[in-house]
Write a structure and sequence with these properties.
459 residues, alpha/beta, D-Amino Acid Oxidase, Chain A, domain 2, 8-stranded mixed β-sheet, 12 helices, 16 strands
Amino acid sequence: MLNELKYDILIIGGGPAGSSLAYFLSRKNMYRIALVEGKPWKDVWGKPCGNAIGAHHFAERRLVEPPSEAIKQVVNGVEIYSPREDVVLRAYGKGFIIDRTRFGQYLLKASMDKGVEVFLSSHAKKLLIENNEVVGAQAVIDGGEKIIHAKIVIDATGAASPLRKQLPPHLPVAEQLDPRDSDLAFREILEIGQDIERPDFIRIYLDQNVAPGGYWWYFPEGRNQVNLGLGVQNGVNNPDPRTQYRKFLLARKDVQPVLKVISSAGAIVPTRRPLDSLVWNRYIVIGDAAFTVNPVHGGGMGYAIESAYCSSLAIDHAFEKSDFTVNGLWETNTCYMPNIGAKQAALEVVRYFLQKLSNEELQFIMEKKIVSEEDVDILSRKAELKSDVIANIQGALSDLGKLFRGLKKPSLLMKLKKLSDYMEEMKKLYRNYPSTPNGLDAWRESVKALVESYRREFE
């Protein structure tokens, strides 16, 4: 017979979402919490990424900022480069390039100090489902199999989300990721033999030849260290990102000479709107497992924190009411969807639009300042295109013959106007997310219809 453990809350996964939730819940010091993490202490938060996160996520959710030893570079803004790299849009805003492992260890240590039991180098094999409820998980801990019972189970297992695949497939929370709604990414952290110009600005490059369906990045981690990588759209026969990286990026003048490869790894990144529901009976899914990622730039740490925060509110109220059903946990959705979810959904429209553009069209949009530097910041933070953009489009339409010479899609400007409309429609749908599970089916049908409509429009 397997050993059995009992907790109030079981968190499966100790990455940005799971460890942030443990931190939020532990501050009340009123729950018995277990966190199961597959990696050892030295590798927590070990998923490869750009390591960038906006400072506003910490301030808005009262999450402690990374300690100095976990900050590799304070960021003051982002520069976005056109395909020819001769046009640069710059948006300002504070952020950090972090040492993910050190910050992950910091959050887990703070949670453990408040009583959270953390099981490292362990993994949950199977969800325990009884009477249409998730009642716990079967896990391998310290080399032995155990049954862990919990009133609420949190799935923070990352993009692969193996546990969600065990749920009844008809559930909205069990929806699987379409490969086309993800990027395959590869990055290396390099020590280089030159001083980086403006190390407090991260750089994003749009180039369909280098990173088809995605972008490539140059994120300084100090004066002589850079996080260099790219992501390509998955599921459409694009070239391997590692091959693209070695072919296009390593020989660049702003990279050479490479003195040392500090880290080298790849990952899959969801690039879509969140799951239509993050909850089921006694079950919540957060972070990459719930697709809570910015669809345009693929940043997931900030949205993982947001989803953890929303679930922490729902969990507190569920325990107050002793209601751990989908109804009792629904606040996770009503907190996340009308706010971050609305932004995500609007940016999914942008992502799809951008993936259909040629380099000539991307160059045109930036060259003619159809989207300004201020708009770049608004697009990132609020997911909207201002009326100024529409005015720029109307002005450009007055000289079609000149402006469209050499472009493959003469309807580009009109599609930009459509983009703005679809973004607003999507945000409106998410701001009117159903207040109870009863309205979810009808809402999902509306979202599905809108997605099909904009995909036809931009195909």
